[in-house]
Every structure is written in structure tokens, then in C-alpha cells.
């Protein structure tokens, strides 16, 4: 899949977790400036991408990532960590940060923000539904022996997508891991940096350096890689 070969350029955009609980003023896990990227993302959604996907964190109330589901004193949101053992393979573990309750199924916090032009979205992918594992990536949990996966990979492949453009929240968590898995799945993957917002702005350089090692290209919304989508016939 060469980006220089127009015959193999069928791009998709994946809008990661642009949900109420991740945005000010009332989100339980609000990322600073989260709503500010909506106009830019709407502009990108107006381009002739072959597929336009939005993802949603969609947790059960007893999800393992919620600090409220762990005993004191090691249950402080943002500060405490938990070691998650793969329920399908006890030799696999992941250390994960604990968060405030967020994006609980059926709550307003789990809904996509009203500023997002949902009429332009073709597919909505829900993730993080298995209470036993953390799932930042919109593709699957991080374990080698997969416990929970979404239909994102199959949806992209069924549409013959070659290039994936990632935007949304948060730069250093769900967008990062979605882009990482996109590259691992074999898609040419772009991370549109000005169309994302981080939990921790100081982590962005580390995210960029890590993902570039896996072939993810960091671009801006006015980069030539986006202009190539603009030039497609809608």
C-alpha cells in the first residue's frame, strides 16, 4: 500500500471518543480543549473519505478502569494504578491507570458531543464493553491473547480501506493506541495532531516518537496527506 500510488488510496477517517465525558465543562474525565477540535474534525468529515468512523468508549458500571471499583487507599483517580491479569491467559498482565467513572453505557456522558456533525459519520464503533480489561485502542485490548475486540478492523478491511487518518481524544491514550493498532493491522496510518487533544500535553513528544517507530506519520490538518483526500472526487 503505497501512498504515492493513487490506485491504492482508499482513505478512512476515525474520530476517536469525541464524547461528553471527555469534554469540558461537565465531563467526568474532561480533556482541556476537547470541544475545540470539533469544527476542525467536522471540516475533515466533509472531505471525500471512503469511510467515516466514530468510536465511543462504552463501559459497564463495574468496569475495571474505574477507581470507584477498587478498594482504598489505592483507588485514587488519575493517581492509582492496577495490574490487570488477562482472564484468558494468566501469564499476560498490563499495568493500567485508574480513572473516574466515565462513558457508562446509557448515560449522557457516553454520547458523542453535540458539536460533532454525526450526519457525516458512516459507522459508530463501541469499545471498552468488557468489564475485565482496559481497551484504549478502538481495535482491541492490548493483550497478545485478545479478550475484547471491536468490529473496527473488519469494517475497514471490508471497505478495502488502505489509509487511516486518526483524530479525536485523547492524543496520549485512545488516539495513540488506535493509531498504533491501525499500523499493526497494515493500514498506512496518519495521526492528525491538531485534530486531537491530550490528557497530558507534556506526553505528546513521547507519543510521536513511539508511534513513528511503528510507521505512524504525524501530520497537520493542512498537510499534503490531507490535501490528497481533498483532491479525491466525492
From TrEMBL:
<dbReference type="GO" id="GO:0046872">
    <property type="term" value="F:metal ion binding"/>
</dbReference>
<keyword id="KW-0479">Metal-binding</keyword>
<dbReference type="InterPro" id="IPR052347">
    <property type="entry name" value="Isochorismatase_Nicotinamidase"/>
</dbReference>
<dbReference type="GO" id="GO:0008936">
    <property type="term" value="F:nicotinamidase activity"/>
</dbReference>
<comment type="similarity">
    <text>Belongs to the isochorismatase family.</text>
</comment>
<protein>
    <recommendedName>
        <fullName>nicotinamidase</fullName>
        <ecNumber>3.5.1.19</ecNumber>
    </recommendedName>
</protein>
<feature type="domain" description="Isochorismatase-like">
    <location>
        <begin position="12"/>
        <end position="222"/>
    </location>
</feature>
<comment type="pathway">
    <text>Cofactor biosynthesis; nicotinate biosynthesis; nicotinate from nicotinamide: step 1/1.</text>
</comment>
<keyword id="KW-0662">Pyridine nucleotide biosynthesis</keyword>
<dbReference type="InterPro" id="IPR036380">
    <property type="entry name" value="Isochorismatase-like_sf"/>
</dbReference>
<dbReference type="GO" id="GO:0019363">
    <property type="term" value="P:pyridine nucleotide biosynthetic process"/>
</dbReference>
<keyword id="KW-0378">Hydrolase</keyword>
<dbReference type="InterPro" id="IPR000868">
    <property type="entry name" value="Isochorismatase-like_dom"/>
</dbReference>
<dbReference type="Pfam" id="PF00857">
    <property type="entry name" value="Isochorismatase"/>
</dbReference>
